[in-house]
Write a structure and sequence with these properties.
Elements lengths: L5 H12 L9 E5 L5 E5 L5 E3 L5 H7 L8 E5 L1 H5 L1 H10 L8 E2 L9 H6 L4 E5 L3 H6 L2 H7 L3 E5 L5 H15 L3 H19 L8 E5 L9 E3 L4 H7 L3 E2 L9 E3 L2 H7 L3 E6 L18 H14 L7 H4 L3 E5 L8 H12 L9 H12 L9 E3 L10
Parallel strand pairs: 3-4, 3-6, 4-5, 6-7, 8-10, 8-12, 12-13
Antiparallel strand pairs: 1-2, 9-11, 13-14
Length: 378
């Protein structure tokens, strides 16, 4: 675990100081998302992913084999995005043998295991920075000559997404692909911004709908920023000061949002009420799950969003991937169907996979509860 007793910590430091000095490697300095100047090897070959969902980005930067330089990774993609993991494991079966780690921000990342893997670089999400520093893990990695780099795909996508992609592009010698992905993102977001009307529908985002009781949501950051970029007013922002929080069912009813967007994933083993979304999902099953949730919730039949058939589902993992710009286009199309009539997020999603990713765009990633609205990517 990260937390070490005082004696164990000093024992670690002494052991590290006694390690034989490795031959000097050519290095360069990059600036990570914590604002730190970090010296990394010119050619990185041994990396630990302290955030497993960084696979979404590595797949775009190294489509031939995103696991080529990975010696260990965090386990949350395996646990909470099982259909994506199954798809990538089928394409890259050696990934199944990689050691896995727990969440650094919750003190579940094993420093001992990481040191034993002899990595050159460990990449964490920015949310892990404060816990790792407080628990002296950063000092241990520094003493071992291991570079620690922080990126952020979680909190401020409009500000941190492009710099994070660039940092990973530099680390994995994939600068050209990183810039191409950023360019596609910027062009796609600009296509929304230039069409936005002044009116902003009031939107409720319910994250992991059905997996938990109503209603978990997001504040100003994360998917809240997706809604803002798409021309919506995220009603939860006035109630949730941080990234994530919970809204009472009574408050949701009183707020009476114009639009409800539920996120879903491959969680049916955890709760059969969850909305199936992702590479292994089918839209008809997702629609049935959405309708069941609406039907069972007291008072929802009287909500404007339900009466107007403005209930939608979105793949939950858009919240922590560089693919968010596709979600922005689709949400904008829901919120402003006339202004965004010529946008084609389906085609954009296909383009992203064809141009950048090693897997096909099969599955269901968004759709409307209204039967007249066809499913996507079935």
């Amino acid at each position: 675990m990260i937390k070490l007793s005082q004696w164990r910590w000093w024992g670690f430091v002494l052991g590290l100081l006694l390690l034989p000095v490795c031959a000097a490697q050519a290095s360069r300095v990059i600036t990570d998302l914590a604002g730190r100047q970090v010296s990394v090897p010119d050619h990185v070959s041994r990396v630990i992913l302290g955030e497993g969902r960084l696979l979404y980005t590595l797949a775009a930067l190294q489509p031939d084999n995103p696991f080529a330089h990975i010696v260990g990774w965090r386990d949350e993609l395996i646990e909470y995005d099982a259909d994506t993991w199954a798809l990538y494991r089928a394409h890259f079966p050696q990934a199944a043998d990689l050691p896995v780690f727990g969440k650094a921000a919750q003190g579940e990342f094993s420093v001992e295991q990481a040191l034993a893997l002899n990595p050159q670089v460990i990449i964490f999400d920015l949310a892990a920075y404060a816990p790792l520093r407080a628990q002296r893990a950063l000092a241990l990695f520094d003493a071992a000559g291991i570079a620690v780099v922080f990126v952020d795909f979680l909190t401020e996508p409009d500000q941190h997404m492009a710099p994070s992609i660039r940092v990973l592009g530099e680390l994995f010698d994939a600068q050209a692909r990183a810039e191409a992905l950023i360019q596609l993102r910027e062009q796609s977001l600009a296509a929304v911004a230039e069409r936005l009307p002044e009116q902003r529908p009031r939107v409720l985002i319910e994250t992991a709908a059905g997996l938990h009781d109503c209603c978990r949501s997001v504040g100003h950051d994360n998917l809240g920023r997706v809604v803002r970029l798409a021309g919506g007013d995220n009603i939860a922002a006035q109630r949730i000061p941080g990234v994530f929080g919970t809204l009472s069912p009574e408050w949701v009813l009183v707020s009476d949002p114009d639009v409800v967007i539920m996120t879903g994933g491959d969680w049916q083993k955890l709760n059969p009420k969850a909305i199936p979304m992702g590479y292994g999902a089918h839209w008809q099953a997702a629609r049935q799950a959405m309708q069941a949730l609406v039907n069972e919730r007291p008072g929802w039949s009287g909500m404007g969003a339900v009466r107007d058939h403005r209930i939608y589902a979105l793949w939950h993992q858009f919240y922590n991937t560089p693919y968010q710009f596709v979600a922005v286009q689709q949400v904008a199309k829901w919120l402003h169907p006339k202004a965004m009539a010529d946008l084609q997020p389906d085609a954009l999603w296909q383009q992203l996979h064809h141009q950048f990713l090693p897997v096909p765009a099969t599955g269901a990633f968004w759709g409307a509860i209204a039967p007249s609205s066809p499913g996507t990517h079935e």
